[in-house]
Input
Amino acid sequence: MKLKTALLGAAIFAALGATPALQAKPFKWSSASDIPTLDIHSQNNALGNGVHAAIFDSLVYYNSQTFKPEAQLATAWREVTPTQVRFTLRSGVKFSDGTPFTADDVVFSIHRAMVKTSNYAVYTQGIEKVVKVNDSTVDFIMKGPNPVLLNQLTELRIMSKAWADKNKALEPKDIRTKDETFSHRNAMGTGQYTVKEWQPDQRLVLVKNPNYWGNAQSNVTEIIYTPIKSEATRIAALLSGEVDFVLDPSPQDLARLRTSGNLKVIDGVENRTIFFGMDQFRDELPGSNIKGKNPLKDVRVRKALYQAIDSDSLHKVTMRGLSQPTGTLVAPQVNGWTEGVHKRFPFDVEGAKKLLADAGYPQGFEVDFACPNNRYINDEEICQAVTAMWSRIGVRAKLRTLPLVTYFPMIQRFEASIYMLGWGVPTFDSLYSLQSLARTVGAGGDGNYNVGRYSNPRMDVIVDRVKVETDLPVRNRFLTEALQLSNDTVSHIPLHNQIIPWAMKRNVDLVHRPDNRLDWRLIKVN
Output
């Protein structure tokens, strides 16, 4: 969205209105995996980001009905020049320890998101630095015009500089290592809730922040999150009343849940695309029977793997209809998507065999294949089904599945030959996906999740142009060209966009969001 010189921040969070008459209640919820960290700049993970938003605030945040950025810690913003954007900060805000929120915290937090150990540099792309004007005003100095700055800022939450300094947490935890910082297990922000307890993989308890500045509609005073990997156990907890809400009910249980008198299910298309990435960098794949070369560097091999996948079967059988098969890296809600790039290559087993033979692998080959087992809807089941599909063309995928907390650090260390990833788009703009997934690995967020290390000079040119292009029709044409280039070169193998059902007790009132995230300001337990 194009920033204007006039004030754009008239929307005030207090307009949500307080509801003191509602009886305060706890909110107990579950999903398959735990958050990876409490550090807001360490692991760019959707589940974690959603929980962080209960503890920390950002300068702007999406309205859950319109998905337009609106005021949070900033109340107004304007372009001073095309490369200088001035933000007025909300007055009277305190961190949960009672210390005041100031411009120093904004400058520190944005710069912290830009350091080497941060996984959030993709949200700071285009930002050169942040400068304090006074205690209630900051200037963002840009490398060039940035048409999606506000969208990026929705994911850049603000941390106390004094707290980080005191606790030696000036830099984020590096997710690729086992080293821990204080901010990995502890958190202190300006949000609605504070951390009472976190026992990883067991229980997270948040309680109301007594110093919270806003007046949210929610009557929830305590949030209790219990990760439950087993689908059956998770649903049993909902049916028995042990939890109020399940973020990821299993597709096979939905019919039963929909007919339960005490429960309800809300569905919505998520802006998340599930795909496979492939190592296109190494000269030889570890563990493969092909020595001295890497079959995945050949576009014919990548296309063969793509065309051997029966997406209709995955949709109907494995996903039980909770998917939207796609041929591109972004969902329809994302700027740059078109029907043309959405179209898949046809399912064609014989054509796939011919492509492999033409590439010099008539007997196929062995390859490492890694997938998470508690992150996406039926992730492990999808990978098992695809392993069987690839076997029909002679590709013997050696499947290994891992839990979220070890899977993501592993693939970011480039330790998988073929891997599954689900990519949501918090900015609702294709640049976020293209820069992270398809641009050559570099600085400033370039290729930060391009763990197959795909590299194409034309892709790099387009992505860099889109970063600063403000003519929206021109910019959209470039985005679509880049998505089509990704398709043509098979940079990745797209599978589907997720359709997300949320299951809950009938007394829970909330808004389903396409980013699969709870809006803590709006939850009511009646």
User: Anything to note?
Assistant: Residues 1-22 have pLDDT under 50 and may be disordered.
